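thread: overnight batch results

M.L. [08:02]
morning all. the overnight job finished for the chain we discussed friday. pasting input first so we're all looking at the same thing
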Amino acid sequence: MARAAGLLELLAADRDVRALVLTGAGDTFCAGADISSLREPGEEPQGLAVRAEEALAAFPKPTLAAVRGYCVGGGSQLAAACDLRFAEESASFGVTPAKLGVVYPSSSTRRLVSLVGPATAKYLLFSGELIDTQRALGTGLVDEVLPRGELDKRVAGFTRVLVSRSQLTQAAAKEFADGREDRDAHWAAQARGSGDTAEGVAAFLERRTPRFTWTPGPIGG
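M.L. [08:03]
and the structure it wrote out:
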């Protein structure tokens, strides 16, 4: 997690990167921090998770978490920071600081509340209990649930859809959805100078795939 922010900056600046898929190694998305490390001096694992979470939330291109297995603790923070979350049906989700007497960060709490609502956020934070994918889907924590063996195929196919769409539309929608209400003039100017609208309309009328050319700037730009 310590290197995530720098890596995300590099990927954001790479024009060949059109979308980001976050997944875990093997059969687990992320089971959280090594609890024994909480006894050691230095930056707390939770602090590293927040830095990675904020860098992921600020990523200017679409992000998708592909979740299988456990998505707990810092893993749930990273998944919540993505734009979308697809999960294999056997996955489990949990926000567990109450089991350790840890205060969950305010930014992470607000993001969780905006995603699942106050009641579900409190249920997860107060109890530390894990929930299955059906409950996660019903609360908005997960966008799609896939049968075992189908997650990678669905994520790859949906990522191809994202890559084929206008990055201008996606970047503006991402900012507006995250509460930026002061950027209408900025995005109107971007749209006027991009050529994406003219290309999209022309492609629709000509019944062909559009070739959008607008690309976002670096994180924070």
